[in-house]
Amino acid sequence: MNADDPLLKILACPLDKGPLHLLVPESEKDGVLYNPRLHRRYPIVDGIPQLLPSSGEQVTEDEHEELLRRMTP
Prior knowledge:
It is a single chain. By secondary structure, the protein is an alpha+beta fold. About 15% of the residues lie in helices and about 25% in strands. It is built from one helix and five strands. Strand 3 (about 40-45) and strand 4 form a beta hairpin. It is globular, with a radius of gyration of 11 Å.
């Protein structure tokens, strides 16, 4: 999945139904989808977003700050 993927425009967080942000670390192939409102990230495995509520992971405040820095160009 890449930032230009049209699928990103229709994907939503399963908990608050808001938009998600794609974050692809240089060291990872698939990356994660991040919801900054709830401080939750969802993995992308083999190009498939894992958007079940149980697949999401709460991030710490420090991780949240780092993810926000990566979201801002």
